[in-house]
Amino acid sequence: MNVRKPIAVVIVLGLILASIVSCAKPTEAPTEAPAPTEAPAPTEAPPEPTEAPEEPTEVPEPTPVPLTYDVEIYGEIENLDPSGQVVTYWYQHTGSREELMLSLIDEFNRTNEWSITVQGESQGGYNDLYQKIVAGIPANQLPSMAVAYQNQAATYAVQEALVALDPYVESEQWGYTEAELDDFFPIALGADYLPQFEARYGWPPYKSMEVMYYNEDWLAELGYDGPPETWEEFAEMSCAAIEQPFSGATGEGAVFGYEYSIDASRFATFAFSR
């Protein structure tokens, strides 16, 4: 093989290039190159990409608030459905007062949205009503609701025949708002709170109070110009009345001094006013 040809070719090309460079005329001095224009200020670098938000954490389920009452007795109050319930209500009213009570019951039965039916039943006087409930406790033959004095309600509660009303009163679904509670006199609501049980066992449908009547003429005969204002004055005037009966009193039924009525209301009045 003739290997000289490629080499010769390379040499010839080198000579030709050399001669071209040596024969070229010198060029004129170059004109001053224009000053380079200022390089544009670099634009600010784009902000660093924000980190992708973390995956949202799951919202924890709210912790259930423990119930403060016995579900076996009350059920779940907020979820109760009272529709169609029949409520027996024992009271002590008679005559015109019972007529008024029955008219209120009838209005409720006709207008309440749950079709609750209240059956009102008079049981005679307070003592009659109390005795019937006491007799009905062992056999569990009791009304749904009943009128009672606080001392009577305490007797029922001791025998576990009465439920506290606090869970109902405080219920968001069925209870009273603060504004509604403000419509009641505090002393009326407080009377049905039994401190020995730390709970409310009644609700005031009406309220009675203790008053004292006195005979002005009799007090004048005894030398007094007004009724007693302290228990000491009360005892003094009562004893004076025994010693000096009223001049206007006649017959066997004449009153001597103060006639005390033995019941819880009188006792409470004497005890708590001291």
Description:
With 274 residues, the chain is mainly α. Among the domains are: 71-200, Periplasmic binding protein-like II (D-Maltodextrin-Binding Protein, domain 2, 3-Layer(aba) Sandwich); 216-272, no CATH class. It is 37% helix and 7% strand. It is built from 11 helices and 5 strands. Strands 2-1-3 form a 3-stranded parallel sheet, with helices on one face. It has a two-stranded antiparallel sheet with strand order 4-5. A hairpin with a 4-residue loop joins strand 4 (193-194) and strand 5 (199-200).
> What's the total helix number?
11
CATH superfamily (homologous) name of the domain at 71-200: Periplasmic binding protein-like II
Q: Which geometry do the CA atoms define?
A: elongated
Strand content: 5-15%
Secondary structure: number of strands = 5
Question: What is the element string, with H for helices and E for strands?
Answer: HHEHEHEHHHHEEHHH
Radius of gyration using CA atoms only: 51 Å
**CATH class descriptor name of the domain at 71-200:** Alpha Beta
Protein topology:
Blueprint: H1 4-23, H2 71-74, E1 86-91, H3 95-111, E2 117-122, H4 126-136, E3 145-146, H5 150-158, H6 166-169, H7 178-181, H8 186-190, E4 193-194, E5 199-200, H9 216-221, H10 231-243, H11 264-272
Parallel strand pairs: 1-2, 1-3
Antiparallel strand pairs: 4-5
